[in-house]
Amino acid sequence: MKAVVRYIDRFFFAETSAAAFGLMRIAWAATVLAFLLGSAPDIIRYYSESGLLPEDLGHLVFRSEYRYSLLLYITEPMAVIALWSIFVVCLLCMMVGIWPRLMTIASVLLLFTFHERNLQPLGGGDTVLRNIGFLLMIAPEISAFSLARLDKQWISWKSTGEYLKPLRTHIWPYRLLLWQVMIIYVASGGDKTQGTMWMAGTVVEAGFHHTHFARWSKDFMDGVSWISPFACFYTLIFEFSWLLLLVPREIWMVRPRWMHRFSLRRWVILGGVAFHWGIFFFMDVGSFPFAMSTAFLGLLLDEDFEMFIRVLNKRFKGKIVVLYDGQCHLCRRSVFTLQLLDQLNRLEIANFRDEKQRKRYAPKITEQDLDKAMHIRLPGGVYYKGFDAFRKIVWHLPVTRVLTPLFYIPGVPPIGRFIYGKIADRRNKCSDGECAL
Q1: Phi/psi of residue 377, each to 5°?
Q2: pTM over 0.85
Q3: What are the distances in angstroms from CA 224 to CA 221, 266, 300?
Q4: Which residues of 258-282 are buried (b: 16+ CB within 10 A; e: fewer)?
Q5: Average pLDDT, the chain
Q6: H, E, C per residue of 32-77
Q7: Angstrom distance (rounded) from CA 182 to CA 176
Q8: What distance in Å separates the CA atoms of residue 162 and residue 207, rounded to the nearest whole number?
Q9: DSSP state of 352
Q10: What is the DSSP letter of 255?
Q11: Which residues does 20 contact at the CB level (< 8 Å), separation at least 6?
Q12: Are the C-beta atoms of 383 and 375 separated by less than 8 Å?
């Protein structure tokens, strides 16, 4: 009996990183918001009493009479637009993490409200989004990567000099999400084997020429139709491969030792990314690729984040030393933000007001020069300051790396140095931890 209890405890209540569901919260809100804004011109037509589906015709498309939607009571066009606007605000708050729990619940309930009012514009991706939204509502911790969490981090760092420990959560929401994804793919694969077109390898070609789904011209689709048999075969193999995740880890470890370093779950997820975005390239299937990619984010575990950091740091040795003014409120805020964005752990922060740290990391630079601009020291011993130092740091932060090319556009560096210089010149000596700009 104790063994059963321990197994249940490990299977449902073992702890894992809350970062995956935090990322999934952001991606879910962004996906729903993008498609919601895309439907803006049709709000009155789709959801109000003045639209295509008046209440007395609802029985033609509603799933059943046992359903609930605020739009059964809010029917006036302007009132519907007001509710739609509230939905947009809730999604924005959910995405950035303002009251993440409350805004998540509100956003998911409003999604159901609009979906239940009119099923006609919906697709498979919308069903997936509803399922993911329900899991986000009940998951024990979804505030990772939120402004609410950022505020708590700042209070902790300002008072103790330390960050809060990384958020952890129980693994049962991950299990529920995994089972849901497995059901989607295995049920889809089973349904496909009932027909002859999938087995004959012609169904993808038919989809390429469907006037509703085809993304490109008929000539282009004719030219790529030769991949149909291969795509059909890959689809069936991929969808049924999710059944392998039911095999206990102890049994799966029987595979050859050289394969132990490869995660089956990780490869299946990568296969899903290739599958859905391959479909997206050739066909217009609505929100489905975005919805499934959002679900894949929720399936990431500690080992996946560790692998991500390990791979990106494979060729990077040492630390980038950031020398900052520990007496300056603006500087401390900036360093606090840099450390939060330093997911690869490449930065080492040093307060140049501390004589020991200054002599250790910048023995040949005077305190007066350090006070004029932020300095960094690369692992090779090369120093950069001001805008150039900022540009180097941006490259090493995963969140900002995509912005790096913008800082090398001709004309941008001189402007950047000018703006940085102006801010540095106006930064007076700090008093009581505050700096005037």
Answers
A1: -125, 120
A2: yes
A3: 5, 29, 34
A4: eeeeeeebeebbebbeebbeebbeb
A5: 86
A6: HHHHHHHCHHHHHHHHCCCCCCCHHHHHHCCCCCCCCCHHHCCCCH
A7: 10
A8: 55
A9: T
A10: S
A11: 174, 297, 298, 299, 300, 301
A12: yes
